[in-house]
Design goal:
Blueprint (H helix, E strand, L loop, with lengths): L8 H6 L41 H20 L6 H12 L3 E2 H8 L3 H13 L3 E6 L2 E9 L1 H21 L5 H19 L5
Antiparallel strand pairs: 1-3, 2-3
């Protein structure tokens, strides 16, 4: 008679891929144990033995995609994308950034930012000037036209943010902001503008 080893639920939680292809016989805790749900790597929990649903990275990416989709819809009449809007808001807060600095703070590659700056400059939303401390580098600023566009869409973008955090208390909103800034610093080692 063959004796089978029946792992505990703890074993299964600590090894999310355990049940893949495995055949398990009945065990003493079969009635208590929930069925094993197969999850992709992006859907697994934190890895600390608790089934918490999607990983934080996956949840943050879902939120980012939802925000970008809604912002693209809001900004479509202006003919700019959510990424271009983000770049303009960064320049409004911190005037005179190099293309590389603007790329880092707008979460795009240097090449993408170069293309964005050309598009925004052609529409009169940004201007560039030579950096007096490094004549090979150009500094970018938002123009009055760019500021006017930001002002025009500020209400709708603020309403989107308000909808996103509507189920949080003011204190939770502040804590969320602090946590997100800390998470960003943990990955980039740079301060946000």
């Amino acid at each position: 008679m063959e004796t089978r080893h029946h792992p505990s639920r703890l074993d299964r939680r600590n090894n999310p891929g355990f049940a893949r292809g495995a055949r398990e016989g009945p065990s003493a805790d079969a009635e208590e144990a929930p069925p094993v749900k197969h999850q992709s790597n992006s859907e697994r929990g934190s890895g600390d033995g608790q089934d918490l649903g999607p990983s934080l990275l996956y949840a943050i990416k879902q939120l980012e995609l939802a925000i970008r989709s809604r912002m693209d819809t809001i900004l479509r009449p202006a003919g700019i994308t959510a990424l271009q809007y983000t770049a303009l808001t960064v320049l409004r807060r911190c005037d005179g950034l190099s293309s590389a600095e603007l790329a880092r703070n707008s979460f795009v590659t240097a090449q993408t930012m170069g293309e964005m700056i050309i598009a925004l400059e052609s529409r009169g939303l940004v201007s560039r000037r030579v950096d007096p401390s490094n004549r090979r580098q150009m500094l970018t600023s938002v123009t009055a036209t760019g500021v006017g566009l930001l002002d025009c869409y500020h209400g709708e973008v603020s309403a989107l943010e308000e909808q996103m955090v509507s189920q949080l208390t003011p204190r939770q909103r502040g804590t969320l902001r602090e946590y997100l800034i800390s998470c960003r610093a943990g990955l980039t080692r740079t301060e946000a503008h």
